[in-house]
Amino acid sequence: MIKVVKFGGSSLADAEQFRKVGRIIRKDADRRYVVPSAPGKRTPDDTKVTDMLYGCYGVAIMEEEECEEEFESRLEKIKERYDEIIEGLGLSMDLTDEFRMIRENFIRKTGRDYAASRGEYLNGRIMAEYLGYPFIDAADVIFFDEDGNFDAKKTDQVLAEVLAEKKCAVIPGFYGSMPDGSVKTFSRGGSDITGSIVAKAVHADMYENWTDVSGFLITDPRIIPNPKAIDVITYRELRELSYMGATVLHEDAIFPVRKEGIPINIRNTNIPEDKGTLIVESTCRKPRFVITGIAGKKDFASITVEKAMMNTEVGFCKKVLEVFSDNGISIEHMPSGIDTFTIFVHQDEFEEKEQKVIAGIHRAVEPDFLELESDLALIAVVGRGMRATRGTSGRIFSALAHANVNVKMIDQGSSELNIIIGVRNHDFETAIRAIYDIFVNTML
Ligand code: ASP
C-alpha cells in the first residue's frame, strides 16, 4: 500500500505538534510520501508563518530606509519560529544559511510567491531531517505553464519519475515553479492540492489529509454544538456542501485524485484514533443518517419576474439572465414557476446595481410584475441516502413547520442529491437546528 500524507499548518505549528505527526507517520509504514504545510497558529490569536512571510516581504520591498529595521526584525521573528521547532525536536540542523539566502532574495524582490513558499520549504527541510526522509524541492517537480496555470501533464511525468526512485520522501506543499524557474504558489490553502498531485503521481491507495478536525461535520458547529462527523461522503456531495460554505479541504484538491479513483481521508492530528471522513467517488455503503450534511449561506436577495404566457416566449430567460451578466452579477439559484421565475443573487453584489437591473429587465422582457425580496438565506440538505428514502422532504418541511419557520423557496435537483430551501435570514439557525434534530438526534 502507498499512502500520501499531508499535514496542515496547525498540525505543524510547533515541536509538540511535529512530534504527534512523527508518531502518526512511524505508526504505519505505508505512509511514505509526506507533504507539509507551513507552521500555522499555535493559539487562536497567533499568526501563521505564511502571513508573517507575506508581511515581511511587503516591508522588504518598500523603498523607505526606516523599513529596514522593521524588515530585519520581522525576518528574525520568522527564523525564531523555526528555531523553536528545531530545538524542541532536538535536531542539530541550522537554518542560518537558508535565512541568509532568503534575506538576499527578499531584498532583490524575488516575488511574493517566492516569499510565501519559504514557509513550506523550510518546514519540509525540518520534516525531512526529523523523519530521516529525502527532501524533494517542490520547485523541481511541480510545474506551472506560461500563463500561470498548473501544468498537470509535465508535473505528473516528472513527479512520477522522481518518486519512483524514492521509497519515501518529503515534498513541501503550496508551490511549484514557472517555466522561467521562478517560484509560484497555488492559492491559499494550496498544500492540499500538492498532496493530491503527489497521490496521483505515485498511484497512491489513499490520500490522508491530516488537519485539526475529525473530518467533515454534518453541519456548522457554531450552530449545532458538537455535531456528528460524516463517515463517508462522495465527491458530488462534498461539492454541494462546500459550495454552500462547508470548508475543510481546498476545492481544487479533489480533481487530481478523483480522476484516479484515490480516496481522501480527512484525519485529526490531535485525535489520530478517530477514523475521520472518507471522501470517495461512489460507494454502496449506506450513510449512517438519511442526510449526509446540511450547509447554508445567508444574505441573498431574490428577484421574481412574472409575465403571463412567459413559457411561450422564446428566449425569455436568456434575456433576463443577460441583464445580470451585463451588470457583472453572478446568479446563485433560479427556481421557476409557470409564469414566474425567481433569481437568487448575493445581496451585497446586487444592492448597488439594483435599479439598473430592474430597468434592464423592464426593457428586455416587459414583465407584468417584478418583486424584490432581501435578507434571505439558502440551506442545502445534501445526501445520497435521500434518493432511496421516501418522505425525506416531508420530514424536512414538517420539522420546519414545527419550528415555526416559513419556507420561502424549495428546489430539489433531479439527482435527488440535495434539496435547497430558502428561508428568512433570521430563521436560518432555527431551520438548520430543526433539520439536524429530525435526521440526526432522533436517530441516535
Ligand atoms: N501555508 C499556505 C497557507 O497558509 C498553504 C497551506 O497551508 O496549505 O495558505
Biggest sheet details: 7 strands, mixed
Low-pLDDT ranges: none
Strand content: 15-25%
- The overall average pLDDT, rounded, is 93
Top-tier CATH class of the largest domain? Alpha Beta
Spatial ordering of strands, largest sheet: 3-2-1-6-8-9-7
What ligands does this structure carry? aspartic acid
What share of the residues lie within helices? 25-40%
- Briefly note the CATH topology name of the largest domain: Carbamate kinase
Any overview of this molecule?
The chain is of the alpha/beta class. The protein is built from 14 helices and 15 strands. It folds into two domains: 3-212, Carbamate kinase; 293-443, VC0802-like (2-Layer Sandwich), CATH 3.30.2130.10. It is 38% helix and 19% strand. A hairpin with an 8-residue loop joins β8 (264-268) and β9 (277-280). α7 packs parallel to α9 (254-260). The radius of gyration is 25 Å and the shape is globular. The mean pLDDT is 93. The structure holds aspartic acid. Aspartic acid binds at residues 9, 37-38, 48, 50, 119, 173-174, 188-192. Residues 381-444 form the ACT domain. This is Aspartokinase. Keywords: Amino-acid biosynthesis, ATP-binding, Diaminopimelate biosynthesis, Kinase, Lysine biosynthesis, Nucleotide-binding, Transferase. Catalyzes the phosphorylation of the beta-carboxyl group of aspartic acid with ATP to yield 4-phospho-L-aspartate, which is involved in the branched biosynthetic pathway leading to the biosynthesis of amino acids threonine, isoleucine and methionine.
